[in-house]
């Protein structure tokens, strides 16, 4: 799970559609949502983009997921959508984009061949 999440976080950080805006000087109207998954149980949890920081959204998604190995797959901000997909080999892929269709397509690409979208949110 940790290797999959580390890979996903690297892909998301490299994505031009993923932005983290927090701290002093950040726009107060920006809010965040997140998707968290558990490899053990297969549980997927989504929280809406109502959280003031990406960390709060990720923590809320992990809590809602409810298992010891829950980890967030993707975080999105106001004006974006996020999606999480899983390939048959167990790899998860996440993405944030300006449209739900783009987030889903990128999440499937990040997960790998034959991936299916399991969660989405805007």
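Sequence proposed for the structure above (122 residues):
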């Amino acid at each position: 799970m940790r290797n999959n999440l580390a890979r996903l976080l690297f892909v998301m950080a490299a994505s031009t559609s993923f932005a983290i805006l927090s701290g002093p000087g950040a726009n107060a109207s920006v809010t965040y949502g997140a998707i968290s998954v558990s490899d053990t149980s297969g549980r997927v949890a989504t929280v809406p983009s109502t959280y003031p920081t990406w960390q709060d959204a990720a923590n809320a998604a992990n809590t809602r997921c409810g298992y010891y190995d829950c980890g967030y797959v993707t975080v999105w901000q106001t004006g974006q959508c996020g999606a999480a997909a899983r390939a048959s080999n167990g790899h998860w892929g996440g993405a944030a984009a300006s449209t739900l269709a783009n987030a889903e397509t990128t999440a499937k690409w990040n997960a790998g061949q034959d991936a299916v979208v399991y969660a989405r949110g805007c």
